[in-house]
# Entry
Amino acid sequence: MVDIDELKNELVLANRILASQNVVDAFGHVSARNPNNPKRFFLSRSRSPELVEMSDIMEFDFEGNVTDGRKDPGYHERFIHAGAFEANDEVNAVVHSHALEVLPFSLSSVKLRACIHTASATGADIPVWDISDNFGDTSLLVANVAQGRDLAKTLGKNRVALMRGHGFTAVGRTLGEVLKISIYVPQNAKVQREALALGGDVKYLTPGEIAVRDADGPGGKDLFRAMQYWANKAGCSHMLEYKKK
Ligand SMILES: [Zn+2]
# Structure
């Protein structure tokens, strides 16, 4: 059995890191599957990620229902996480972000593609989900189980899906992996846009290059080094020491 308090500590740290790296602001969220009960997942109550604490972490099922007896319904968009965990057993962590850098690619016919090595874990394809395709005029928020499942269908076995006029959802085999993907996807978008603006041909990572880097496992070789840096930037170095307590 996995120590759930240790996982919750890691999830709080992930919230703080994503806020510190400007991947999320007042909105956006990160979740982790419950390894002791894989049909459940952990996600904060409706708070800005920068402010999330251990006591905010709640447990949900794939219908988006609270399973720990608390009265708080959680984030409005918890169905994003429910759909992603339900659709793919390999997914153990999910991030949803409204990062501005990716938004142009959610509107344009120009596709966002991995072009910098640090973003290779996004994979060869980054699909775009348009909520209006199946749900017509909405608030653009993922507000029910059907919409969460529809997004998960577009995501498929990919690691990132853009959401038209809204943001992106990323999935990972570990929290560390989904952090790395979520931090570097906006940077990849910025570099790609600048390369396109130069006007010449743009060379993207090849499927072979992506496969070589993916062979290093979730998050790559130096993930802990990155975690130390991100935790320090977020003022949370002490949270990496949790395991030693
Ligand atoms: Zn959203």
Residues 4-244 form a domain with the L-fuculose-1-phosphate Aldolase fold (CATH 3.40.225.10). The first helix runs from residue 4 to 20. The two ends are 18 Å apart (CA to CA). Residues 77, 96, 98, 141, 166-167 surround zinc ion (CB under 6 Å).
